Amino acid sequence: MEPAKVGNNPVEIQVGIADYKIGREPARLITLGLGSCVGVSLYDPVLKLGGLLHLMLPDSTQFNNVTKPAKFADLGIPLLIDEMRKNGAHLNRLQAKLVGGAQMFSGLDNKMILNIGQRNVEKARALLKEAGIPILAEEVGGNRGRTMIFDTSNGQVSIRMLGSKLKVI
Amino acid sequence: MSYRHLSPVELDALKEVGNIGLGNAVTSLAQLINRRVNMRVPRSSFLPFEEMIELVGGYEELVGCVSLRVLGDAPGIVLYIFDGESTLHLVDMLMGLPVGTTEELDELAQSAIKEIGNVLTGSFVSAISMMTGLNMITTVPLFAFDMLGAVLTSLMVAAGRVEEQVLVIETELFHEDETLIKGHFFLLTEPGAIDRLMAALGFNEG
């Protein structure tokens, strides 16, 4: 990742679990410790406007009381798209990147290993396709936790994993 | 969603349950490694998810985590989380190696940790079970060694328990009074299980 330019003080915006945030250049949107959760970034390169969602589950329809819509792919992704458009983004300019969806645990207990990570990724892909938003890059699957850092000045996403070098997509 | 308010007396009772559970767990560990192990429970409380992360050291903190499902009268998940260094120390303890020998977790080390986690959490749960008369059975352990945030959220999502408060028992184990193994024992119960636990301890359901 390129170091921040002098006089260009990037603001870091933390995106919590089951939450989403919008930021404009030079903001950097960060979400920590994605495991089976998926981070979805949307970017309008003309406005240099970005949005980042930290979703936990694919489908809200299996739950009776939904208190945090951003927890679910099927509610959170439309919310993020809406928020981007409210801030002036054009749907046909939006580009997405996906990070996370890992399988963190190893063991024999199948009931606990439901491949939620993979289902999160598949649901996010399907929803973005439906909305006509191309996915420019992905860093998904595997068994490692990831921190996602989204630079709204150029749309780059950096991925931090413990014991590995920073990866940029 | 959250638990009904527990009175200070009830919280004390839970802390006592934690003490007895850990005492039992430590006895099993000491037998396993054939060494003396001392313990402390500095704290036990109900915490929301965010505070739980903060307590253990932040989203990107390296941790080892062993988790088991509990079936029976008070179903839920138990997990034992050790900080990164303590995880490696635990492997040394089990293998009878000088502390500091293990630097990364290979297959063998991972299965050693799973075994220790299994013994610790299993005897913890069986102590609670004996004390309360509730039927509690544990399943085979799962293991992860990575970022705390990633490990915890994945587990809670898999268990379908995301918005609830969690019973956290902070534990410190001392191996022959020199090596400190810092860990946190978590109990994520399904709705109603805590009420059943309190009722079994002689408190009226409220």
Automatic annotation (TrEMBL), chain A:
<keyword id="KW-0378">Hydrolase</keyword>
<dbReference type="InterPro" id="IPR038592">
    <property type="entry name" value="CheD-like_sf"/>
</dbReference>
<dbReference type="InterPro" id="IPR011324">
    <property type="entry name" value="Cytotoxic_necrot_fac-like_cat"/>
</dbReference>
<dbReference type="InterPro" id="IPR005659">
    <property type="entry name" value="Chemorcpt_Glu_NH3ase_CheD"/>
</dbReference>
<protein>
    <recommendedName>
        <fullName>Probable chemoreceptor glutamine deamidase CheD</fullName>
        <ecNumber>3.5.1.44</ecNumber>
    </recommendedName>
</protein>
<comment type="function">
    <text>Probably deamidates glutamine residues to glutamate on methyl-accepting chemotaxis receptors (MCPs), playing an important role in chemotaxis.</text>
</comment>
<dbReference type="GO" id="GO:0006935">
    <property type="term" value="P:chemotaxis"/>
</dbReference>
<comment type="similarity">
    <text>Belongs to the CheD family.</text>
</comment>
<dbReference type="Pfam" id="PF03975">
    <property type="entry name" value="CheD"/>
</dbReference>
<dbReference type="GO" id="GO:0050568">
    <property type="term" value="F:protein-glutamine glutaminase activity"/>
</dbReference>
<keyword id="KW-0145">Chemotaxis</keyword>
Automatic annotation (TrEMBL), chain B:
<keyword id="KW-0378">Hydrolase</keyword>
<protein>
    <submittedName>
        <fullName>Chemotaxis protein CheC</fullName>
    </submittedName>
</protein>
<feature type="domain" description="CheC-like protein">
    <location>
        <begin position="109"/>
        <end position="141"/>
    </location>
</feature>
<dbReference type="InterPro" id="IPR007597">
    <property type="entry name" value="CheC"/>
</dbReference>
<dbReference type="InterPro" id="IPR050992">
    <property type="entry name" value="CheZ_family_phosphatases"/>
</dbReference>
<keyword id="KW-0145">Chemotaxis</keyword>
<dbReference type="GO" id="GO:0006935">
    <property type="term" value="P:chemotaxis"/>
</dbReference>
<dbReference type="GO" id="GO:0016787">
    <property type="term" value="F:hydrolase activity"/>
</dbReference>
<feature type="domain" description="CheC-like protein">
    <location>
        <begin position="10"/>
        <end position="43"/>
    </location>
</feature>
<dbReference type="InterPro" id="IPR028976">
    <property type="entry name" value="CheC-like_sf"/>
</dbReference>
<dbReference type="Pfam" id="PF04509">
    <property type="entry name" value="CheC"/>
</dbReference>
